């Protein structure tokens, strides 16, 4: 009836969905939304309709997106143990350390435990990477991103 191919309609709906979900996620203002859609080259009437559609539905879209977000487990406690193998039948003098971690997590009011085992050098590398990630979270760029995500 429209005289347009199926692919064009599908891409249009996907584009509109993406525009509305990303705008709602970032909770952008009316002016920012208008600036975003102005670049697309639509008529002023269509821009006003899109703005009204965004303003009418952004709260509902945000609530749907929050329901769809995965419920990630949270930290409860950690138990650890250091095991060292000093010798075996074939090698009488060897040192083979291993760190065993038991991570207790809360997920949907249920407690689960994950047992992990690694050698100390890998654990040190993991600690360095986590400290580097925490350091990056203190940069202005990451703070801006986190502030816009809320």
Automatic annotation (TrEMBL):
It comes from the Eukaryota. Coiled coil: none annotated. It holds the Pfam family COMM_domain. Residues 74-141 form the COMM domain. InterPro entries: COMM, Commd2. Transmembrane segments: none annotated. This is COMD2 protein.
